[in-house]
């Protein structure tokens, strides 16, 4: 071979690269029945082909090529993607136990240390999940007393929105405060005023953290934690904000411990502290302060930004489609009139119910869902998934499945209406996920969405500020919130 010839040298290099890639692919293949996927580059895997800001977009394109079950490699980590309603539901519901763990992503471990309910596993997670579900029920989720709290908060929200007198304003902090006050009342037994600096700071910490969790720097930190720890980046910002949030919770815990009355449990923290007292003789403790600190963080974060972002999408879409807004208002007038909206009204309001469902569909709040991990070796859809495999159950592929939704790329409330205008359920509507890792606050979120949305449209007509162009693109972040915008709320009475 003539190595003095530049063309020969180039061909030799190209050949070596392809041979190395082929050998790496064979070596990295875990099992003959492991799901197919794009060839990974050595060390970096499939990172070069992924959209860092919106990885779900790239992943859904890959699903069209490789099918509903396929693999990707992010750095050294093997991951399997599940796409489409049938596949995702089969995994999360029919194989719930096998897909019930969370992978130990570096950023998740840094902020939770394996505690709480979102990023924990094993017996600790099961104990926190049982406690969370039972305590939410005990403090009224799905019952009249939580409905009363939401309606009281709706009154406060309407008053705040009226204060702008139809002039443009950013609804981000206002809607976050309204929703946060509901979960805060359950967690610590109080609500805050809309201008309270402490609550505004907590909400800002949550918004910024969720935004950073979807950033390219955090993506790269999860792929190469040892390397990226030498550089400044979003993961360090996330840690700082989480530490500040945890400090607030620990101060609250100290206060509640000093005033705890086991016979008068007023909030979730009280209920946890009582469990803590009961558990002390048990050598295998779950109800300790670290679990409580992270659990409260999990519930505050999950119970605030996802619901408020959905409401922001709802108001933005009503501005974009004024006729749909008018149709909702007409139904509110016919069914509720000037009275206080109640959950019992929903069954008599098929169009409004359909619009709220379609808002959730369009918003696609958690496109990649929470990552799962196999608890054991699994044969799934003819593929072998070894224990400890990270799983991406793509919720966006479920909510945009053309087999179940006629126009998944449009805002189309008729997805949930029959030809006579009756509300119809769609089995592929899974915005809260499903199975053992489904959203613990699903019932609360449904109540908040209906009561806040109907109260706002009962009192206001929402319009874009003069000369403003409505942008329906999603902001970059772990959840798909709307991009920053202003709205005008014109009083209807």
Question: What can be said about this structure in brief?
Answer:
This protein has 493 residues and is an alpha+beta fold. The protein has helices at 6-28, 55-66, 85-94, 106-112, 122-138, 144-162, 172-187, 197-213, 216-223, 225-228, 234-258, 268-279, 289-302, 305-320, 322-335, 350-363, 395-399, 442-459; strands at residues 69-74, 77-82, 372-373, 378-380, 383-385, 390-393, 460-463, 488-491. Helices cover 51% and strands 6% of the residues.
Architecture overview:
With 493 residues, the chain is of the alpha+beta class. 51% of the residues lie in helices and 6% in strands. It is built from 18 helices and eight strands. The strands form three sheets. It has a four-stranded mixed beta sheet. Strands 4-5 form a two-stranded antiparallel sheet. A two-stranded antiparallel sheet has the order 7-8. Strand 4 and strand 5 form a beta hairpin. The N and C termini lie far apart (87 Å). 42% of the residues are buried. About 2% of the residues have low confidence.
Low-confidence stretches: 5-12
- What helical percentage do the residues reach? 40-55%
Mean pLDDT rating: 90
Secondary-structure element series: HHEEHHHHHHHHHHHHHHEEEEHHEE
Q: Cα-atom Rg, whole angstroms? A: 24 Å
Structural class: alpha+beta
Which overall shape is indicated by the principal axes computed on the Cα atoms? globular
- Let me know the number of strands: 8
Strand content range? 5-15%
Side by side, the strands of the main sheet go: 1-2-6-3
Number of helical segments? 18
């Amino acid at each position: 071979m003539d190595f003095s010839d530049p063309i020969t040298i180039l061909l030799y290099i190209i050949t070596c690269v392809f041979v190395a890639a082929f050998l790496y692919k064979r070596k990295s293949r875990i099992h003959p029945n492991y799901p197919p996927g794009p060839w990974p580059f050595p060390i970096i895997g499939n990172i070069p082909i992924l959209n860092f800001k919106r990885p779900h977009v790239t992943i859904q394109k890959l699903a069209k090529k490789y099918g509903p079950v396929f693999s990707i490699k992010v750095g050294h980590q093997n991951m399997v993607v599940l796409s489409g309603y049938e596949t995702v539901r089969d995994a999360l519901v029919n194989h719930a136990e096998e897909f019930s763990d969370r992978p130990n992503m570096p950023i998740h471990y840094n902020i939770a240390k394996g505690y709480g309910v979102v990023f924990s596993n094993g017996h600790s997670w099961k104990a926190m999940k049982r406690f969370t579900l039972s305590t939410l029920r005990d403090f009224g989720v799905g019952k009249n007393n939580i409905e009363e709290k939401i309606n009281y908060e709706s009154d406060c929200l309407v008053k705040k929105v009226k204060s702008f007198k139809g002039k443009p304003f950013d609804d981000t902090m206002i809607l976050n405060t309204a929703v946060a006050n509901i979960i805060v009342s359950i967690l610590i037994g109080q609500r805050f005023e809309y201008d309270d600096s402490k609550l505004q700071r907590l909400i800002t910490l949550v918004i910024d953290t969720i935004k950073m969790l979807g950033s390219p720097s955090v993506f790269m930190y999860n792929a190469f934690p040892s390397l990226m720890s030498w550089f400044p980046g979003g993961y360090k910002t996330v840690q700082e904000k989480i530490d500040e949030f945890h400090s607030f919770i620990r101060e609250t815990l100290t206060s509640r411990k000093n005033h705890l009355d086991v016979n008068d449990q007023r909030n979730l923290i009280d209920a946890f502290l009582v469990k803590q007292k009961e558990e002390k003789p048990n050598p295998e403790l779950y109800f300790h302060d670290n679990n409580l600190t992270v659990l409260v963080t999990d519930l505050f974060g999950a119970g605030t930004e996802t619901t408020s972002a959905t409401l922001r999408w709802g108001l933005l879409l009503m501005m974009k489609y004024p006729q749909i807004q008018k149709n909702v208002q007409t139904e509110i007038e016919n069914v509720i009139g000037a009275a206080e909206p109640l959950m019992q009204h929903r069954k008599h309001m098929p169009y409004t119910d359909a619009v709220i469902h379609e808002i959730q569909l369009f918003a696609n709040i958690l496109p990649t869902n929470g990552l799962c991990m196999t608890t054991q070796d699994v044969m799934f859809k003819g593929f072998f998934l070894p224990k400890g495999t990270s799983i991406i159950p793509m919720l966006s592929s479920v909510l945009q499945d053309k087999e179940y939704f006629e126009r998944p790329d449009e805002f189309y409330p008729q997805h949930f209406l029959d030809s006579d205008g009756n509300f119809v359920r769609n089995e592929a509507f899974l915005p809260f996920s499903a199975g053992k890792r489904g959203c613990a606050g699903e019932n609360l979120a449904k109540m908040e969405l209906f009561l806040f949305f109907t109260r706002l449209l009962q009192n206001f007509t929402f319009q874009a500020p003069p000369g403003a162009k409505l942008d329906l693109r999603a902001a970059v972040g772990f959840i798909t919130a709307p991009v920053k915008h202003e709205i005008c709320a014109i009083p209807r009475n």
